[in-house]
């Protein structure tokens, strides 16, 4: 296989709400990979280490959500923009049904799309972040550190947040810090982040949710049709593992795999083990 570089895999899709950028590699059934949130995040940074493995089996499509500095911004709250972007992306590529892997926010977006459009998602894999806190405080430590960085974006706060993402502190290298710092402090991207994680915006979102008559997505998981695999790091300090209990109990067709000595970035910190579990799930023949 040709080396999978940023440049060789980067693609663009023009839509009525701006250009969606994505990375494409491999051939076979379509596999949509959705990234999480946080300073300097992109789909490429989330999944570049896993692309080669999955590209041997799937046509991998790593979508860059609007509001994170790669795809054109929409001006919407990044979470709201993401759901619409997924459907515009699938329609733009003429894809009726895909498998989805979603990290944290990406897992929530994938779940919401699967609930709203059950015919579009065949199998769903989530990495942390899905569900709601049962025993642990909410928001978790990593979310609080993310809010602190968003309010006051300093290098020290970025490093503190990065350490909350992993079990092994050796993963927080100077290279990682530098790679995240520049895009995280770009004015437009930072403004979008503040719509999600600024303290005032976060509090307003929680207040609005409490007053809303619309049920939260986690209360509708019993309606999820997609066969689902929930993956989690046992030592996740962003989304504590007890969050998996509600979706584990309520999703009709669900499996859960918890990885030891692992934080929020399961696909990075337990790369080989995680890839093995996910590939087995996605390639298993349907029994129905």
Task: Describe the secondary-structure layout.
Elements: H1 6-9, E1 10-15, E2 18-25, E3 30-34, H2 43-47, H3 51-55, E4 59-63, H4 78-92, E5 98-103, H5 105-116, E6 121-127, H6 141-151, H7 155-165, H8 174-184, H9 187-197, H10 199-211, E7 227-233, H11 245-250, E8 254-259, H12 266-269, H13 271-283
Parallel strand pairs: 3-4, 3-5, 5-6, 6-7, 7-8
Antiparallel strand pairs: 1-2, 2-4
Helix pairs in contact: 4-5, 6-7, 6-9, 9-10
Structural description of this entry:
Residues 29-269 form the AB hydrolase-1 domain. GO terms for molecular function: monoacylglycerol lipase activity. Keywords: Hydrolase. This is Alpha/beta fold hydrolase. The protein is an alpha/beta fold. It has a domain at 10-134 and 216-283: Rossmann fold (3-Layer(aba) Sandwich). It is 42% helix and 17% strand. The chain is built from 13 helices and 8 strands. The chain has helices spanning 6-9, 43-47, 51-55, 78-92, 105-116, 141-151, 155-165, 174-184, 187-197, 199-211, 245-250, 266-269, 271-283, and strands at residues 10-15, 18-25, 30-34, 59-63, 98-103, 121-127, 227-233, 254-259. α6 (141-151) runs antiparallel to α7 and α6 packs across α9. The chain is globular and about 50 Å long. The mean pLDDT is 94.
């Amino acid at each position: 296989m040709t080396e999978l570089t940023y440049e060789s895999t980067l693609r663009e899709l023009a839509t009525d709400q701006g250009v969606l950028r994505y990375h494409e590699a491999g051939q076979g059934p379509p596999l949509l990979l959705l990234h999480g949130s946080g300073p300097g995040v992109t789909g490429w940074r989330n999944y570049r280490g896993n692309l080669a493995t999955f590209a041997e089996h799937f046509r991998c499509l790593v979508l860059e959500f609007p509001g994170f500095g790669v795809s054109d911004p929409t001006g919407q709250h990044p979470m709201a923009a993401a759901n619409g972007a997924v459907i515009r992306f699938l329609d733009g590529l003429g894809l009726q049904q895909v498998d989805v892997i979603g990290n944290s926010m990406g897992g929530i977006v994938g779940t919401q799309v699967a609930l709203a459009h059950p015919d579009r998602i065949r199998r769903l894999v989530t990495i942390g972040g899905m569900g709601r806190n049962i025993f642990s405080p909410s928001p978790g430590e990593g979310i609080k550190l993310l809010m602190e960085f968003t309010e006051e974006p300093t290098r020290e706060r970025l490093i503190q947040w990065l350490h909350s993402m992993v079990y092994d502190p050796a993963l927080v290298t100077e290279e990682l810090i530098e790679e995240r710092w520049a895009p995280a402090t770009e004015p437009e991207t930072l403004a979008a982040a503040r719509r999600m994680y600024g303290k005032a915006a976060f509090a307003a979102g929680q207040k609005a949710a409490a007053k809303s008559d619309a049920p939260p997505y986690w209360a509708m998981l019993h309606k999820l049709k997609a066969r689902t695999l929930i993956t989690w790091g046992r030592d996740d300090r962003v989304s504590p593992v007890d969050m998996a209990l509600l979706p584990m109990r309520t999703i009709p067709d669900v499996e859960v795999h918890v990885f030891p000595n692992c934080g929020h970035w399961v696909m990075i910190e337990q790369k080989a083990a995680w890839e093995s579990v996910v590939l087995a799930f996605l390639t298993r023949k349907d029994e129905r």
